[in-house]
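Translate structure to sequence.
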């Protein structure tokens, strides 16, 4: 039987570092959670188990965010299992780095496909299916404010995510659905840590006034606010980075 009285959250990238922390936090806040993954079913299952062990409800769903049929299946699962969709948190994304002069176009296309087309598809479905009173939360990055070498393809894709976010918020006028993007700074997950030396990680961590990397829980706190009480924050990009310039 669908649980129609509970609020329901879909978290893309729930198998990833930030997505897992968000899934668990929303589970603690009383949301039934669809934990989405692409290749790492085991990590999504672990997240579901953690939510259930804490007394919540969750189910895993696998699929490519750039595949519209697969993503429609994720919303259908939420509706069949939990009765609807109230909050969509779209964290799934990739970050291959290379200077513009050196990046091959296949990699560039993959970044845009996952990060831009993926956001367009998830947001399109969310705009059609999130219940009134809901929230759509995309993921940008603090890199969009910087001009950091090697981040060209990634920063371009996240600039597009910010544009989609700000426009969708205005398109949903009258629906009582908020649309925002969270833009983390460096956060201790595989996406940030992979391929970086300990020295480089320490150097990057020292660049903000707090003198440390963000944690997935720091980001989950911001998402919990936007998914819950933060109804007056709409059509914004929230930079969550410890005060980095
Ligand atoms: N970590 C940081 O420092 C940082 C900073 C700023 C912004 N962000 C943004 O925060 C978000 C989450 O990052 P994270 O650090 O948690 O990354 P992560 O640990 O690498 O997780 C990435 C997630 O995206 C999923 N994913 C990748 N490609 C996909 C595809 N084609 N279709 C569906 N899912 C796909 C992965 O699924 P599988 O593992 O199941 O394949 C995984 O769940 C990203 O949008 C990232 O750009 C991160």
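Result:
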């Amino acid at each position: 039987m669908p649980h129609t009285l509970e609020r329901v959250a879909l978290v893309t990238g729930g198998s990833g570092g930030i997505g897992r922390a968000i899934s668990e936090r929303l589970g603690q806040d009383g949301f039934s959670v669809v934990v989405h993954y692409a290749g790492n079913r085991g990590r999504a299952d672990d997240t579901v188990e953690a939510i259930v062990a804490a007394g919540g409800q969750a189910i895993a769903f696998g699929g490519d965010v750039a595949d519209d049929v697969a993503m429609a299946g994720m919303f259908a699962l939420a509706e069949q299992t939990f009765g609807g969709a109230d909050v969509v948190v779209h964290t799934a994304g990739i970050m291959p780095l290379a200077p513009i002069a050196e990046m091959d176009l296949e990699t560039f296309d993959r970044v845009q496909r996952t990060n831009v087309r993926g956001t367009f598809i998830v947001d399109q479905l969310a705009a059609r299916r999130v219940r009134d009173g809901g929230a759509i939360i995309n993921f940008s990055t603090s890199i969009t404010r910087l001009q950091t070498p090697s981040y060209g393809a990634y920063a371009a894709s996240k600039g597009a995510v910010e544009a989609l976010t700000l426009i969708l918020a205005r398109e949903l006028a009258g629906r009582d659905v908020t649309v925002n993007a969270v833009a983390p700074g460096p956060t201790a997950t595989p996406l940030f840590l992979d391929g970086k030396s300990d020295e480089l990680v320490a150097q990057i961590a020292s660049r903000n006034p707090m003198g440390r990397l963000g944690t997935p829980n720091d980001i989950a706190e911001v998402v919990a606010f936007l998914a819950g009480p933060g109804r007056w924050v709409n059509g914004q990009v929230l930079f969550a980075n410890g005060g980095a310039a």
